[in-house]
Backbone:
């Protein structure tokens, strides 16, 4: 994976598309995505595409990643609806613990519709919100609308900020190179750290004392 991303500059826009779409889907659909650096990935993708002067590709990637983010959250919603959230909590977990699940559930319960929209900008809640919404039996149409609005605000903003931000830096080649190196390094470092953290969390036993979040009130638009 690290080799694939490190060679993006020579592989071109196709590699950017494959990596971005697969990572965004995982982050939005499965609990493993809780530990992936989706924000920095989207920004880095825009920076790399700028080195190829692929403006059309940046806009099309924004649209495709937006759709994938919505589809991924639909998968997460149905996972939560089918399994609940109790099995997620781990004894001694730094992220997947009873307190964090309760906080995420309370956030969704308190803010309802807008919690799903805002969750796109909160890394760990971004992955948990669809599962909690599914477990709480949030109306599917309402959830789909909320997660779509969130994706529209999240994906294009970061991809295009990276693309046009890097375009400005083309006047300073050394700074442009530095931006690419930092973006890629941050993504690789974040992914490596995420994999390590995921393994650490999953190695801990399930917290049997953790309550499922199906009891929270059905989130409504507010």
Residues:
């Amino acid at each position: 994976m690290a080799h694939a991303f490190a060679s993006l500059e020579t592989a071109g826009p196709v590699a950017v598309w494959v990596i971005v779409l697969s990572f965004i889907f995982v982050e939005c659909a499965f609990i493993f995505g809780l530990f992936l650096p989706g924000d920095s990935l989207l920004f880095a993708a825009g920076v790399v595409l700028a080195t190829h002067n692929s403006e059309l590709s940046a806009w099309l990637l924004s649209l495709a990643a937006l759709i994938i983010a919505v589809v991924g959250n639909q998968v997460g919603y149905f996972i939560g609806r089918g399994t609940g959230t109790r099995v997620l909590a781990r004894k001694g977990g730094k992220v997947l613990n009873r307190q964090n699940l309760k906080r995420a559930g309370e956030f969704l319960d308190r803010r309802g519709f807008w919690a799903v929209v805002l969750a796109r900008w909160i890394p760990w809640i971004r992955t948990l919100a669809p599962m909690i919404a599914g477990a709480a039996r949030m109306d599917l149409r309402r959830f789909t609308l909320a997660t779509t609005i969130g994706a529209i605000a999240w994906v294009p903003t970061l991809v295009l900020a990276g693309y046009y931000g890097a375009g400005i830096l083309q006047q300073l080649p050394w700074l442009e190179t530095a931006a690419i190196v930092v973006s890629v390094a941050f993504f690789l470092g974040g992914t490596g750290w995420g994999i390590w953290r995921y393994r650490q969390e999953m190695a801990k036993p399930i917290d049997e004392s953790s309550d499922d979040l199906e009891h929270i009130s059905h989130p409504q638009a507010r």
Summary: Confidence is low (pLDDT under 50) at residues 1-8. The longest helix spans residues 140-169. The two ends are 42 Å apart (CA to CA).
